[in-house]
Amino acid sequence: xxxYVRDWLGPQHGPASDLDLAVLLVNSLDLLEDPADRLxxxxxxxxxxxxxxxxxxxxxxxxxxxAPLRELRAALRAVFTAETAQDxxxxxxxxxxxxxxIPQLVVSDAGVRLQVAPGQTGLAALSARLPAxxxxxxxxTGTARLxxxxxxxxxxxxxxxxxxxxxxxxxxxxxxxxxxxxxRQRRQRRRDA
Length: 193
Hints:
By secondary structure, this protein is mainly alpha-helical. Helices cover 48% and strands 9% of the residues. The protein has helices at 18-26, 43-51, 55-59, 66-80, 85-98, 122-141, 172-192; strands at residues 103-108, 111-116, 146-148, 157-159. The strands form two sheets. The chain has a two-stranded antiparallel ribbon.
């Protein structure tokens, strides 16, 4: 994966999940990077999609998809900070309706699976599959495992996959920055005392 993507995703065994793609899209606005908004053209998202096993989605994107991808990113970002499942539903349901995110049974040699937008690629697939993945996650676990980084000014999104549900930072770099800041603050308080 591209070196500038921090450890936002869970363990990868094959292509990234649609839930992980939602994290990547939301984190295309990363206040710790320069420039912070990497979705001003398709270069970053195309590279990332290809790196995580979704080159087909990247190849179907066009320059006209940048603005709608930014809108989708903003809508999905709000879900990561939703307080309740009800708040998340109010954000996700209009996206699901607009994208006609209707699950369908897909039969292949590997078996039968339920998939949203199976014949779609590019923006159409992302607009249906990413909200559907977040909706499925909220339906299974609620909003407690969706988060936004606590290491300000970072606001990157993450999925808390820890057993204890204790994740507060999007990546180890932000965790380390926060720990160093806390250490400096404690040391300064001791000096002042």
